[in-house]
Amino acid sequence: DDDIFSSAFCENSEKLINVHLFALAAKYYSLSNLGVCTPLEDLLEALKGDSEGAVGIKPDEFMNNKKSHEVQVMSELVDSIANYCGIKQVIDIGSGKGYLSSYLSMQYNLKVYGIDSSSSNTNGAHERNRKLKKHWRAYQSRGKESLKSQSLEEANGRSVENEINCKTINEELLNNANSLQNQGQVIIQDLVPSCGLTEVATLETNTETEAGLVTGTQSHETKSSEEVLAILNILPADAVEDFSSSHCSCGELCEEENVQRKVTSLKTKARRSSESNLYFPLTSCITAETELSDIITDLEDCMMVGLHTCGDLAANTLRIFTAKPEIKAVCSVGCCYHLLSEQFENQEECHDQVWGFPMCQYLKDKGWCCGRNARMSACLALERVAVGQMLPTESLFYRAVLQVIIEEIYGVTKSDRHVGKTFSKSSSFIDYVRRSLKKLELDDSKLQDSCIMDYYEKYKHRMNELEAFNMLKVVLAPCIEVLILLDRLCYLKEQENIAWSGLVKLFDPVKSPRCYAVIALKSQSCS
């Protein structure tokens, strides 16, 4: 309990004295241990109803492994929620280059509006969407050729088999003609779809033999129909085209017509939903006060989604969801906690501002504040470190020494500018410092190379300390993330128009560290 864990720190100095107990406490208060999450499998089971799962393809050809994993898992859940709520329109907030949006549109036939504040992302999404259409057409072409080749191989195999059977039958006919005629039996060659072979029969037909023949033929035709429809199901609706008719025997015409009718039905459905099976990338900055109807002119009952919405955008997504009656559900996975705005971080009062944290009334009443350092820690990936993906100690050391330099040499303790990913572009510590100073708009001529290296040598022996300190931050990271996610969940629990809300672990945390989704569905009576 709290009393036991508090002994990890010295009562007088408040310094950490028991690292093991500290780690146990962090694990105890992590989201995976608190038992507040809804298992993804249970949620999908509750949502599925009578609907059938879509025949899926893996988007590995046009996404990296991490993004492919995220998009596949989240899109299946989004489709299940959309089906449960009876909606076809999805709004993807912070859609970026449209990975999730385009997949929801093409794979699940949903009408998706992807909204991103960056015009370069929107332009990139348009270009990527154009390339994806080519991908789908190529995929369709490969699918048709594969099916045609497979059918031909099966037909050739049956042709050889039938020739052998036919030869055997003829020999039996010659040897047993009189016996066969007396019994009134029939020898019927096996019908082979798409090969134009004819049957050999006597005047009278044995009922059992005919029934067996029909059953065998229907079984093969049904399999062929399923293969055709399986390929059609994984294509976007607007990619459905006519399959050319093959030369069939009279005996298989009825079943072939059934296949063609199914294809025609799919085409008709595709034409009718031609306006719904679309993805629209849009550029707009989303805030809590955003009127979606000003951005989306044909706004209808829909759901909002966000895959790694950055900073305050995750909080604003939930606020828009609760405020707009058209939005029936939300599925939001946030990230970049360090960019959250905090109401109680600064002493200045801004009554009109909408803050990213806290959201729920309980933490507001407590005046709770995390602080930027804690929020930065919440972005760390404990699961990755646990499997051997160590922290970038050297880059962290460079950054720490740089901060000492700019404080002591330039007197700067706070800056609105950021160093960014300078480490990966630098050839040495000296190069790193000079590049960083230019980004911070500080005069690097004040520093000689020897002075820069003096700072490096002065603190080099403390690199192990820095690594140990950052490992403690990694251990604590899940606890801080818990606070932010539970704040969002509690905010939803406080709303009167929410039928259900929960936290769901969507992704493998090693592949995608920000793996928890905040999900909510509105009451059906809400309009």
UniProtKB/TrEMBL annotation:
Q: What is this protein called?
A: MET25 protein
- Describe the location of the Methyltransferase domain by residue ranges: 66-343
Q: Which domain of life is it from?
A: Eukaryota
